[in-house]
Amino acid sequence: MNNSSYSKETLYIHKGYKTGKHQDSLSVPLYQTSTFAFDTAEQGERRFAGEETGGIYSRLGNPTVQVLEERIATMELGGGALAFGSGMAAVSTILVHLTKSGDHVLCTRGIYGCTFGLLKILNEKYNITHDLKALMTEEEVENAIKPNTTCIYIETPINPTMEIVDIELITKIAKKHGIPVVVDNTFSSPYLQNPIELGADFVLHSATKYINGHGDVIAGILVGRDKEQMETIRGSVQKDFGGIISPFDAWLLIRGLKTLHIRMDRHSENASTVFDFLKAHPSVENIYYPFDKDNPQYDVAKKQMKAGGGLISFTIKGGVKQAQKLMNELKLIKIAVSLGDAETLIQHPYTMTHSVVPEKERLEMGITESLLRLSVGLENSSDIVEDLQQALSNM
Ligand SMILES: *Cc1c(COP(=O)(O)O)cnc(C)c1O
């Protein structure tokens, strides 16, 4: 099924797979194998020489993984994709690919906690520097680019403050300087936002989150505009660093993807209901949601996102103790990091996901003591609202 005239929801279900080639199996078969046997020694030689397609060894490629990669490349409007054993393996692979000692990475002012940790390692061990900057205006982007900047790394919406950056604005300026742009698109999923369409060169996902959507896999995806470049990364950093996905996890992601569009519509719908409730609640001090009409970047969010997504952050009066009390009062909503699952999850970035970030940077990122991040799930939205209501009334 390679007809690109089908709409994207159809491609999420069919792209990259032909039943006839696989004993007519409707479901994509799970090739749970480490290696592939050659008919003859000469065939092995041809496969290694790249003269014949076919399996060699699952770290270099696997038929189940290949379906997943083709499907996600299509969903993100890219030329090719690589699947990894975690989102961080995708992040580290692209950063290693785009930098060498002495280079500089320019980032949005908020980034995922472990991405921050990785940049710290790259800095301390390999002299690759980075800056976290607002990047809201053309002037800010121009001023933040250095002669040795070889990568601009964007998260939007930013975790966990839900700040929106204008992907199109940044990619336009980056292009003038010949600097590749990487977007961590985890929060939006390929259904709500397609950075390549807005000029980005690479898009990555923690597929652990919305792409899988069922809270039972850790995985990552890297999509690139250019197929050949993606094959270069496959044959170099991915192959030699080795952070590949297991065939079984790829199979679960293929299964998750079939309902991505339906799940994202419902996540966004439920989040919008929960947002309206929290925004009107007297105990809620600040609230952050991309499609909040009072959000200064509302127009940018509307321009680049199909819907508001499932994540809401908010602060309440008080500090760490008050935030923890609210979480402990919840009955239905689970206290857990991660996001994008069917279950509604709440976490406290200050003491959990971003506790590794030094206090100064944490506060600069807007991660205050009472900030809570809610990943709105697929339950009936009135049950989610009711749980928050009873917990807030006990504060
Ligand atoms: C979870 C997450 C990651 C890291 O992904 P893992 O699958 O946990 O390795 C990176 N970026 C964002 C925005 C995330 O939420």
UniProtKB/TrEMBL annotation:
GO CC annotation, single: cytoplasm
PROSITE patterns documented for this protein: CYS_MET_METAB_PP
Catalysed reactions listed for this entry: L-methionine + H2O = methanethiol + 2-oxobutanoate + NH4(+); L-homocysteine + H2O = 2-oxobutanoate + hydrogen sulfide + NH4(+) + H(+)
Domain of life: Bacteria
An example Gene Ontology biological process: methionine biosynthetic process
Enzyme Commission numbers on file: 4.4.1.11, 4.4.1.2
SUPFAM superfamilies: PLP-dependent transferases (SSF53383)
InterPro entries membership: Cys/Met-Metab_PyrdxlP-dep_enz (IPR000277), Cys_met_metab_PP (IPR054542), L-Met_gamma_lys (IPR006237), PyrdxlP-dep_Trfase (IPR015424), PyrdxlP-dep_Trfase_major (IPR015421), PyrdxlP-dep_Trfase_small (IPR015422)
Keyword Glycoprotein found: no
Record's keyword terms, sorted: Lyase, Pyridoxal phosphate
Cofactor(s) essential for the protein: pyridoxal 5'-phosphate
GO molecular function: homocysteine desulfhydrase activity; methionine gamma-lyase activity; pyridoxal phosphate binding
Residue positions, PTM N6-(pyridoxal phosphate)lysine: 209
Entry's family note: Belongs to the trans-sulfuration enzymes family. L-methionine gamma-lyase subfamily.
Name under which the protein is recorded: L-methionine gamma-lyase
Organism (species): Psychrobacillus psychrodurans
Name of the gene: megL
